[in-house]
Structures are given as C-alpha cells and as structure tokens.
C-alpha cells in the first residue's frame, strides 16, 4: 500500500520543496522506497532543484492524460526517485490525479508530494506535513492551512520549522506547538549548505552529509518511519542547537 504524504505550508518560499526533496532523500538513505512528486503545478521546482528541468515526460504530461505517470519517474544520481513537473507550469486539470494515484499504487512505499501553499494537490494525500518558518505570519498562515487540511480529513502529522536560527526574535518551538496544537516534528536550521547544494543540483541531505540541515532532515525522516536515529552521537552541535531552541 502506497502512502501519499503532502508537504505543504501556509505561505510561499518557506521551504516546502526543500523539505519534500530532502525528506525523500533521507527516507531513501534509510532504505525506504520513495518517490518525490512535484505537486506544485504553477511553480514546479523539483526539476530545477535537481537539474532535471528538461525531462522528456513530466508530471503535467501524465496529468493531462498525454503520458503514463510511470514514464515520468526519474532517478537522480543521489538515488532519490522524482516525478518532475513541466517548468513552464502550464495549465492542466487535476481531475486525472485519481488515476495517477492508482497507477503509482505499489510502485513505491511512500510518495512525498511537494504541494503549493494553497490546498492544490494536497487533497489527494492521506497525510500532510506543514512547513513554516519561525515567524508569526508564517505560523499563523500554517494554522489556516492545518484547518483546511483537517476539513478534508487529511491527517496532519506535524509541523516542520525551517530556516531556524535560534535567536530571540524567532517563535520558540513551544509557542509554535501551542498555537498550532500540533507537534513540531522537524527543526531545520538556516544553512548556507542548503543554498550551496541547490546550486550544484543535489539535495543537501545527500551532498552535505555533515550539515546540520542534513541532520534535521534525517531526524524528520527517522521520526516518520519510527527509525532510531541517534542524533546525539552523530551531531553534538545539532543537539545543542535543538536545546537552544527549547526542543529537548
Ligand atoms: N534551511 C534553509 N537554509 C537556507 N536556505 C533555505 C533553507 N530552506 C530553504 N532555503 C532557501 O529558500 C528558498 C525557498 O525554498 P523552497 O523553494 O524550498 O520554498 P517553497 O516553499 O517550496 O517555495 P514555493 O512556495 O515557491 O514553492 C530557496 O532558495 C532555498 O534555497
Ligand atoms: Mg516549492
């Protein structure tokens, strides 16, 4: 049985694509069978993040009925499998999505869907992760998104706080959890490694094994699959970062 997990958020630019891609990469690193699907039809960025922007068959082609979704699956050199969208972001009806979900059934254990800030294709997922940055506007927008997801009976697994510096101007994990009434299950630091990895077209969780961002994504993946991932022994610095955030 394939599990569809939407990665969404309340606002644009908070790190939904970065999270979807690196969660997929970390799950793949744990030996899980995973596909990252570019579910952002207007701003399909997965291909751009990985250097797969000019593929022959895209998610848009499959959605419009012009191709089989199985022909739109590509394996990046990092090992993660992806279904890139058409970077032109052309208009396409989503009614083919039910058929696509059925065609993907059994092809992968998990399909991580990079979704836009509005509901978009999230409604086809059973579960969702909500990405926010630790600012009131972003977290309040995440609250509205959580409400919309739950109105559609989508289980919100938790919140991923991205671009965290740990300074006094940020919302604390406790405050975010209190406001959203959801657990923060991922804390990803602000890191130049993320931008650097994007410039070389690799997920940071693959190209920068020692990065604190990588540790954050691996911890998130481990949490989701109930895997033991000993961040204590692997990353002393990340651990003290989490403590500073009031996370542990
Ligand atoms: N933890 C991080 N540290 C540093 N930069 C980051 C981090 N996460 C994301 N970024 C940067 O923020 C920018 C936006 O990230 P991303 O494309 O993942 O956001 P998004 O929510 O998917 O945006 P959109 O709403 O346009 O789809 C990118 O340039 C990315 O490099
Ligand atoms: Mg995006």
Task: Write a compact overview of the structure shown.
Helix 6 links the parallel strand 7 and strand 8 (184-189). With 248 residues, this protein is α/β, with parallel strands linked by helices. Helix 1 crosses helix 9 (212-225).
Helices and strands in order, then pairings?
Elements: E1 3-9, H1 16-29, E2 34-38, H2 46-50, H3 59-63, E3 74-75, E4 81-83, H4 97-104, E5 110-114, E6 127-132, H5 136-151, E7 155-164, H6 173-180, E8 184-189, H7 192-199, H8 204-207, H9 212-225, H10 231-234, H11 236-244
Parallel strand pairs: 1-5, 1-6, 2-4, 2-5, 6-7, 7-8
Antiparallel strand pairs: 3-4
Helix pairs in contact: 1-9
The structure holds adenosine-5'-triphosphate (ATP) and magnesium ion.
Residues 9, 12-18, 40, 43, 45, 117, 162-163, 188, 190-191, 194-195, 198, 213 line the site of adenosine-5'-triphosphate (ATP).
Question: What would you say this structure looks like, in words?
Answer:
The structure is a single chain. The protein has one domain: P-loop containing nucleotide triphosphate hydrolases (Rossmann fold, 3-Layer(aba) Sandwich). It is an alpha/beta fold. The radius of gyration is 17 Å and the shape is globular. Helix 1 packs across helix 9 (212-225). Helix 5 links the parallel strand 6 and strand 7. The longest helix is centred in the middle third of the chain and has 16 residues, at 136-151. The protein contains 11 helices and 8 strands. Strands 3-4-2-5-1-6-7-8 form an 8-stranded mixed sheet, with helices on both faces.
Highest-level CATH class: Alpha Beta
- CATH fold naming: Rossmann fold
Physical arrangement of strands within the biggest beta sheet = 3-4-2-5-1-6-7-8
The major sheet is characterized as: 8 strands, mixed
Estimated share of beta-strand residues: 15-25%
CATH architecture: 3-Layer(aba) Sandwich
- Binned, the helix content reads 25-40%
The count of strands amounts to 8
The backbone outline, from C-alpha atoms, is: globular
Hetero compounds? adenosine-5'-triphosphate, magnesium ion
Distance between the termini: 34 Å
Structural class: alpha/beta
Q: State mean pLDDT (0 to 100 scale).
A: 93
Nearest-angstrom radius of gyration? 17 Å
What's the structural domain tally?
Answer: 1
Q: CATH H-level name... which superfamily?
A: P-loop containing nucleotide triphosphate hydrolases
Order of helices and strands: EHEHHEEHEEHEHEHHHHH
Q: Would you identify the regions where 5 or more consecutive residues have pLDDT less than 50? A: none
Number of helices: 11
